[in-house]
Amino acid sequence: MLSAVHFSFPFYLSIIGVASSPLVGRFCDLWNIKFIAIGLFICSAIAALVFMTVTSYHLLLFAALLQGATGGGLYPLWACLVGRIYDSTIYGQIMGSTTLVVFLIIAPAPLLAGWIHDVTGSYRMLFVLMLTLVVICALMISRLKLPPVDKKITGP
Hints:
79% of the residues lie in helices and 0% in strands. By secondary structure, the chain is mainly alpha-helical. The protein has 6 helices and no strands. Helix 1 (4-30) runs parallel beside helix 3 (57-85), helix 2 (33-53) runs antiparallel to helix 3 (57-85) and helix 2 runs antiparallel to helix 6.
């Protein structure tokens, strides 16, 4: 039987993800997007390392909340990157196309995680894979050439 803790866990993840999204969006408006991206990737890497070595419920909760905050921040970061790289006349087309590709990659992730657990008996390899992908993404973002920001345009 599931306890109240099991039911509240996804709630906390959702709340932290929803809260981090506008915050990261604002940070993207104020600071260098590459630094925001690398910061999110570092948070995701820390979460993966904690998941790999978790010894208590509190550490599990910390890692999950950190991953939730990172996940919530990725969409505004992604939208900001697309807006900086592509002309506004094709922004919707680019966001739609990249969303399709991303969701085709994300959709089988739970199946892959289950398969990894079935084959290895643990999720450790999944977190190693996640950590590897985070490092690759951070390296790719750090080498990305972005056009300069037009400082004359201001937001609310």
